[in-house]
Amino acid sequence: MLKPREIIAGLNPYHSPIVSRAGLNLDLNESMAGCSPRVLRRLHALTAEDVSRYPQRETGEQLVANFLGIASDQVLLTNGIDEALSLLFTSYLGAGDELLFADPTFVMYPMLGQALGGQMARVQSGEDLTLPVAELLARISPRTRVVAIANPNNPTGLAASRADLLRIAEAAPDAAVLIDEAYFEFCDGALAAGKAVLAKTMISEIENHPNLFVARTFSKAHGLAGLRLGVLAGAVEQIDYLRRLSLPFNVNSVALTCLEEALADSSFVSEHVAEVKRGRDRLAQLFTELGLRFWPSQTNFVLVRIGAQARTFAELMQRRGVLVRDSSVNPGCEGCVRITVGTPAQMDGVLQAIREAITETRR
Hints:
Elements: H1 6-9, E1 24-25, H2 37-44, H3 48-52, H4 57-68, E2 75-78, H5 80-92, E3 98-103, H6 108-115, E4 119-124, H7 133-139, E5 144-150, H8 162-171, E6 176-180, E7 191-192, E8 195-196, E9 212-217, E10 230-234, H9 236-245, H10 253-264, H11 266-290, E11 293-294, E12 301-305, H12 310-319, E13 322-323, E14 325-326, E15 336-340, H13 344-362
Helix pairs in contact: 2-10, 4-10, 5-6, 11-13, 12-13
């Protein structure tokens, strides 16, 4: 009887996080503003020939390289960040090697590591949920082959300093150090006229640290989650290794066709980011008023501790047409709920729903 590898058979299935599309989906960290009108116009202008041809990833990589201010051979376009993670982990993590990361963080890191037979070197963040730098440094060993850090982090929304991230990269020269910047654009001071500010990202350090990789996505600030377009930046030699494993037509032609318009519409991204920041400030003000513990976010969502009634709160919000994510399964996030920031037009109703749901859970 045919059976998969024992490691694969023992994995817990990863199900889509989509619970429902009924109501307002504030549980997936999607862009509630959608994509740029320029992207939509380009989609509507697609021809039969555009769809029937194989995609040219290299053209898109040159566009992204220009946008990031690095060379095209330092960039690999992927089918979302998920594929970038898969390529990187497969290339550097073998059976028995250690994957080092801090909980809570993105659930795909341990799932991919376990599938490859890696050993999970987990470090638990403290009560403040900030990146436990000293503990991570202490866990680095000759067996450490990949270090994965989401910055800003999901589900906490917190960002670590460049200095701390550099300390980790320098302490693990024989390991691939991944800095996952999926939510980078929402960091305070991260954008200037729609362009990435190199002083705020780790991309400027890939020249100095050959073991450093930086991942980006167009799913969040650019609103292209449905097109699945990610970026992995790193040293030329290391990106060349990943290209050997990457499938030649991994990024679809529709995504590549829309990429130029998405990058060019800097005003759309800047306005969306500004609206998200105002929205998360409104959430923070409400949580303060309600006496709830929350974490200062640098992303398009806010993590708040509801307590033992977190699941009930999420259900009450769903009854009011708003889906939020119960994050209690994440280590250190017991009783916490993650709420994506809606558009200005949506936030009045969201805040009212939160007030009502909290009042009901406290009865």
